[in-house]
Amino acid sequence: MKFLQSMQKALEQIITPLTTFLGNNKTVNAITTGMMMVIPVTIGVTLFAILGNLPIKWWQTFLKHSGLYIHMQDMITATLSLLAVYIVVIIGYTYAKEEGMNGMIAGVIALGSFLCLIPMSVTVGKENIPAILTQYLGSDGIFVAMFVGVLTSKLYCYLIKKKIGVRLPESVPPMVADSINPVFISIIIFTLIFFIRVLFGYTSYENIFNFVSSVISLPVKVIGSSVWSVIGIFSFMNLCWFFGLHPAPIINVWYSATAPLFTAAITAFVNGAPTSEIPYLDFSLIHFAVAVGGTGNTLGLAIVLLFAKSEQYKSLGRIGIIPNMFNINEPLVFGLPLVLNPIYFIPLVTSSIVGGLIAIVFLKITGILSNFNPLIELPWVTPAPVSGFVSGGWLLLLMICLIIISQILLYYPFFKIGDKKAYESEQKVAANN
Questions:
Q1: Which candidate, 123, 200, 244, 379, has a CA 20 to 30 Å from the CA of 28?
Q2: Is 164 helix (H, G, I), strand (E, B) or coil?
Q3: According to the per-residue pLDDT averaged within each range, which of 19-33, 124-138, 168-182 is highest?
Q4: In this structure, are residues 316 and 336 in contact, taking their beta carbons and an 8 Å threshold?
Q5: Contact in structure between 82 and 137 (CB atoms under 8 Å)
Q6: How far apart (Å, rounded) are the C-alpha atoms in residues 402 and 3?
Q7: Rounded-to-integer distance, Cα 429 and Cα 256, Å
């Protein structure tokens, strides 16, 4: 415990000045607020995400035959799959309010600009059908939403300060004036968005969303098939999470690119090959170690939040622990938030390295592979200890439990810094009141 306290003090000397600097940055504040304000959406639909994917055969049969399954999936689509829509509005609104401008108008312009960048048709065969892909409104669109929200709101505030707008007589009601005044400004902003859309339309990416997905997916194409490649790619995903880039596009590319490796292991296992002759078995197993509780291994953080001193952290711990057990960690990622929060940069990025190293030790000193069944694939919401025990018996369960403990220890010193800062802030508010 003394070691953790000493580590906490040392980290405070490094991290506190950085958090103070970023805390005074209007752009960072707008982005972090945008992430935090989607908590009601991410928490509100968590129950349906869990219930709709429980790995119980009779329950799944009941949901599908009763027609409830499609309704649950639509609830998830309208919320978790459209997070970029919520985020772009809040970021645009918050930044404008920080500048003392009309946040509502800035938020509406940000939303319109974001939607203007999205392809409005889908090619089916040889025919173009009017449609919007929800992937651009969700995981693939979060980074673009952050960029558009900040860009359009900054430009709106800048042009307002330059007195660019329609001048109306004082007799015009304020509500009417507020909506008409920025008309010329919105024309400038939407013209800029038009050129951005056209610019990417002339590239091989076709749109800005494909460009972002392709750039962040590049490491997948050059990385190998060793256990170290898994640790590396998941650490990169954690880094993306820190900057607000949803890891879903990388995960999709990763599993598509590595599907032949999983298939080779499953085929050899089904054909009765001995453990030593099954290819990529260690590659398959190490995936259990690098994302316990979701990308960023936030289950350890969710546990320590239960022992927080500040009401903010304590509340997040209570509402975030259950979703995190089922690998849904958006409430913590957006609630603390982890996005652009320098306090949690180190544990967030290195958590997969810690879990991966523990798995490598287990591979070296135990017979964990002899009981591992690569054929078993449980739904993604299955708690890590449960899926580990079903797929690999008590040894894999033990490994996952040790990883959870290691993640608790990894996050603890940084959690104490954040909790202390939140508690002091709450005390100042209480004293002022």
A1: 200
A2: coil
A3: 124-138
A4: yes
A5: yes
A6: 19
A7: 50
Q: Tell me, what amino acid is at 36?
A: M
Residue among 24, 178, 194 at smallest CA distance from 102 = 178
Please give the Cα distance from 178 to 182 (Å, whole number): 7
Q: Which residue has the tokens 């958590």?
A: 351
pLDDT class for 290, splitting at 50, 70, 90? very high
Only one residue has tokens 């995981």, namely: 139
pLDDT digits (tens, 9 = 90+) for 292-335: 988 889 999 999 999 999 998 998 888 889 889 988 888 888 88
Residue owning tokens 């939303």: 111
Query: Do 73 and 134 meet the contact criterion of CB atoms below 8 Å apart?
Result: no
d(CA 405, CA 401): 6
| Residue 115 C-alpha from the chain's centroid | 21
- Cβ atoms of 384 and 288 closer than 8 Å: yes
**Backbone torsions φ then ψ of 122, nearest 5 degrees:** -125, 135
DSSP 93-156: HHHHHHTTS-HHHHHHHHHHHHHHTS--EEEETTEEEE---HHHHTGGGHHHHHHHHHHHHHHH
Hey, what are 102's tokens? Answer: 């009309």
CA distance linking residue 220 with residue 261, whole number of Å: 14
